[in-house]
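User: I'll paste a sequence; please echo it back and then give the predicted structure.

Assistant: Echoing your sequence first, then the prediction.
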Amino acid sequence: MAEALRAVDANVLLRYLLNDVPAQAARARRLIESETTLGMTAVVLAEVAWTLAGPRYKWERTLVAACLLDFLTRENIEAVGFVKAEAQASLLACTPPQGAASFGDALIAACARSAGIDEIYSFDQQFARAGITPVPPP
């Protein structure tokens, strides 16, 4: 019997990417680089993006997007609540020259497009940078 799908939390992905807590990083690496299928949510991707680009680590947006894009190409990563290709397209919209979308907007757009939605009610008219059409609330 196959093992049930388990999701990966942001702290596991962060340890994997940062290698800042060696014992935890080794465990995260063994898990992520294994053949075990792992669930990934857009919320976790957003948390990781905000943490890496935020005031503590100050990673460049391009590097953050590249790391997340690379992570999503892993065969054992299963998107939960979105389509991988939509998230990859949205993450590209976060970096020049493709665009300047925020990571949050990009992942919201990816989830919406994955569900067949191409418009979003928003007061933020910059949402179009994320690949979804903003519509002001009536």
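Helices lie at 10-18, 22-32, 42-53, 61-72, 84-92, 103-114. Residues 6-107 form one domain.
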